[in-house]
User: Fold this.
Amino acid sequence: MPIYAYQCSACGHAQDEMQKVSDAPLTVCPQCGQSSYSKQVTAAGFALKGNGWYATDFKNGQPAKSGAPACGASGCGGCSAG
Ligand SMILES: [Zn+2]
Assistant:
């Protein structure tokens, strides 16, 4: 089964979802429950284009390198190493 990268545009929650090709795309975010959960086309890396939450971080004057929610609770090692 293919794995799709999903992200919520409301709260920024990102998660990989394993789905059958025939399954309907998910729309409800498991984190905040809003219908802002959508499949990300860019599966390789996080080349975000026009996703608000990421751009918002830069407005604080700091690059959003740390605290990126992409890895979440599962972690990737790189993130938790800080
Ligand atoms: Zn959400």
In short: The chain has a mean pLDDT of 74. The beta strands are 3-8, 14-18, 37-39.
